[in-house]
Protein: Phospholipase/carboxylesterase/thioesterase domain-containing protein
Amino acid sequence: MNPLSDIVEGSGSEDTSVTSPMTTTLEFGGTHVVRPKGEHQATIVWLHGMGDKGLSWYQFFETLRLPNIKWICPTAPTRPVAFFGGFPCTSWSDVEDISETAIDDLEGLDASAAHIANLLSAEPCNIKLGIGGFNMGGTLALYSGICQVLGHYRNGNAYPINLHAVVGLSGWLPCSSTLREWIEASDEAKNRAASLPILLCHGSSDEVVAYEHGERSAETLTSLGFQNLAFKSYDGLGHYTIPEETEEVCKWLTATLELKGNSSDP
Structure:
């Protein structure tokens, strides 16, 4: 095992289940951690897409030259997903469709967001916290950011952590049809929205989550007062990542989190 990592399997002694404040108990899979190779300044939970697992991104972040970031890569529960005709796969919530009009599984989103917040709540108070992800992982990252802005999950429970960065790659905005009503109901939420740093990236040739979803996500958030938002598009990019996009994320995180001695240079 790599000395810079810890691997906690879901079948081990650590309790990886989270009981939703509604009715459902979800069993999360293994959580994989890449520890910083330099001074620990930030911790980011990175969330995989539907059908994937944390191990895939753990292997990627082992080689990424951001020495002051600790990466936590959890694995979503396996559940039936309506988008796949009810076929079970790893997913942070049920997904009916990838569209602005689809009904969101708020119970599933709340439970997964709470699991992610629990992972970050154990970090030292001087460490900056972030959440990012790919595909639906980016969607859950945005949902977590929304919960911070509102100050609570949709079930009413308080959101317990302070996020310094949210990153979404090839994802979409959940709850877009009701988000305006939620934000405009609170002046405090408007203030939080204005200051939350968000980076969204999307490929113009994405064949899974159409580019228009990423573009509209950025437009909707901007119209709701998310002033500290950057949207990057990549001509010809499909539903995957490329070095150019990775470099953009690294530079943005370094600047946004004000990381010292932290760059992608050799």
Q: What stands out?
A: The longest strand covers residues 128-134.
